[in-house]
Specification:
The protein is α+β, with helices and mostly antiparallel strands and about 450 residues long. Helices cover about 40% and strands about 20% of the residues. A hairpin with a 2-residue loop joins strand 7 and strand 8. It is elongated. The chain starts with a helix and ends in a 6-residue tail after the last strand.
Length: about 450
């Protein structure tokens, strides 16, 4: 077993010279064997230091305390540094609505990462891989999900992934090592335990060499997954335009490749726990255009481009402005109205000048209002009229902030756009008698 573990470590580049390794040790058979192998082969694996980390989930009362004390004694015998952490899984799960299993896993990994080790070894073995495969299969996972547990993920390494539980138990017997057993492993209350006690034994009945067959299957899946991953990454590189993606090549790609590319895009956008439904949603707008909400981000596909932004906070309002008052209040903010006589226009800076509105050029009622689809403005000294959407995109204003930008309009159209300036139609000139500008009271948006 030792040779198999060392081969796995070397094949997957799990450990580099001088690494400080943390090891998750529950006191069970798997983690005790992992700790023992790493300690006995510390020099061969070029490890600088090893620290055992034990997490008490506060689920099993006195039994959990027993496991902690047992693990501490094992570490004393092996001369290994020992760290113990308590996380209140029942309380946290009740607060978040997570299942006990999901919550325990999250808090456990958060505890592991809090110590800052170069690598962190967990005792997942081949049986765990098989159980995870069937667990993910039962949930309709994709190819990536069926690959179950990776050998390396970030700082996490799994040296026992090619070793069966039977091999682990034999190693413990040969080395005279004892371990504790979690009482919850013996019941079928949890999905994984049902797979462990019912599904896996059935597979061994069908094929006594099932572990070898499983590894052959996983190896084939890994090769195919790696090919699709690299092809999808190349496709995205060909489609990438800054933070946007051209959709033409995505449309023409095979669906399997396009879906994998979408999965990569969603990861880049920070979407967690990506589902098939979210991937299909983005795939649909790539093909047909439109918008889709993906975990608080708006995916937009239009004019051959896919891009993302936070959902825009919409302020739906329209209020008449009295230019003779000093302030105006509206849902998108409060503004001070500053007035200028003709004599004041001689010595003002360029920014102020670009935001001055000629009062005599206002047609009908002046309103401060929210954005309307299709709104456009021809800014002073600009050659063409542009939509607000185009202007916002050019200035890279986050979608979440666009609804807060103040817009002034009269009966003939847009007069002024906060952060951009006055329309050409209402700009001041040598004949201007009175002008006004609007200044936000508080932090500027643009």
């Amino acid at each position: 077993m030792t040779d198999k573990v060392i081969k796995t470590v070397e094949k997957h580049g799990m450990i580099s010279r001088g690494d400080k390794i943390g090891v998750g040790v529950s006191g069970g058979a798997d983690s005790v064997s992992l700790l023992h192998i790493l300690v006995k082969n510390k020099e061969a694996l070029r490890i600088e230091s090893i620290t055992a980390v034990h997490v008490n989930h506060l689920i099993r009362g006195e039994e959990a305390k027993r496991d902690m004390l047992f693990t501490e004694r094992i570490c004393e015998k092996l001369g290994v540094d020992f760290k113990s952490v308590e996380v209140d899984v029942p309380k946290e799960a009740q607060k978040t609505g997570e299942s006990t299993e999901t919550c325990a896993r999250r808090l456990r990994y958060e505890a592991f990462e809090s110590f800052g080790f170069d690598k962190f070894a967990t005792a997942h073995n081949l049986n765990d891989r098989m159980e995870t495969f069937f667990f993910n299969l039962s949930r309709g996972s994709s190819l990536q999900g069926l690959l179950s547990i990776p050998y390396v993920r970030g700082i996490y390494i799994r040296p026992l992934l090619d070793v069966t539980r039977e091999e682990i138990e034999e190693y413990l017997r040969k080395n005279g090592l004892t371990y504790v057993t979690d009482s919850t492993n013996g019941c079928d209350d949890y999905t994984r335990n049902k797979i462990r006690h019912s599904v896996i034994p059935q597979m061994f009945e069908l094929n006594p060499s099932f572990p070898k067959a499983f590894l052959k299957c996983e190896s084939s899946l890994e090769e195919e997954n790696e090919y699709i991953k690299k092809a999808a990454e190349k496709l995205l590189n060909d489609c990438r335009n800054g933070e946007k993606y051209y959709t033409e090549k995505l449309k023409n790609a095979h669906k399997a490749l396009r879906l994998r590319a979408v999965s990569i895009i969603l990861k880049e956008q920070g979407v967690k726990n990506i589902s098939r439904e979210q991937i299909e949603l983005v795939n649909h707008i790539i093909l047909c255009g439109g918008k889709a909400d993906v975990s608080g981000n708006t995916a937009v596909s239009e004019r051959g481009t896919l891009y993302f932004g936070e959902n825009e906070k919409i302020f739906d309002f329209s209020e008449t402005v009295n230019i003779f008052t000093d302030t105006v209040k509206c849902p998108c903010g409060n503004f001070k109205i500053i007035k200028f006589a003709k004599k004041d226009l001689q010595n003002i800076n360029k920014q102020t000048f670009n935001n001055l509105i000629d009062c005599d050029k206002i047609i009908g009622r002046l309103k401060i209002r929210s954005r309307i689809s299709g709104d456009g403005i021809r800014l002073n000294n600009r050659k063409i009229t542009k939509t607000l959407k185009c202007l916002y995109n050019e200035k890279k204003i986050p979608v979440s902030e666009r609804g807060k930008i103040a817009i002034l309009a009269d009966d003939d159209g847009l007069v002024w756009l906060e952060g951009f300036g006055v329309s050409e139609r209402c700009a001041v000139n040598s004949e201007t008698k009175t002008a006004i500008t609007f200044e936000r009271m508080g932090d500027n948006i643009c």
